[in-house]
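Take a look at the protein record below with the fold in mind.
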Amino acid sequence: TDEKAIAEQLPSYPLKTCPVSHESLDSMGKPLDFVHEGRLVRLCCKSCVKEFKAKPAETLKAIDEAVIKEQKASYPLKTCAVSGEELGGMGEPVDFVYGTRLVRMCCKSCIKGFQKEPAKYMASVDAALIAEQKKSYPLDTCLVSGEKIEGDGFDHLYGTRLTRFCCEKCAASFDKEPAKFLAVLDKATPKR
């Protein structure tokens, strides 16, 4: 459903401005979120929808460029998400945007393989993000309950950011008020 796609893609949506009007997304009140061909698009108002529909490829390209710019530096895999080949081993890696997430591949032919089983390949990207961020995760307590995380706890990605909980129930509570709990994580995270 569109609601599910919006909820999944919103945490990693990179733009703070409308890709059509270039105004702040909240300049006309609550942003208008909709799904176009499986992709989240956020506009400042209904009047921008007509302009978006006249040139969707241009708008999606702007969103893709922002996703790549925001996620490339912290992208965790050094190998192609599909073939497992070393990135750069077949020339310049291909940066592909799935929803609002970056997936890096060794070549364009791997895009077709990815599109056949996106959940499988996103799971490997997600696992790598979790493993990489776990190394420097600043808390040993659950973001929601404040309890010490026992064993492996429950790891959850909010967009591309690791959040850790004592259990799945706390992760569900986090999803209802992410800004509140991300503020706790931000406070604990050392500034770079």
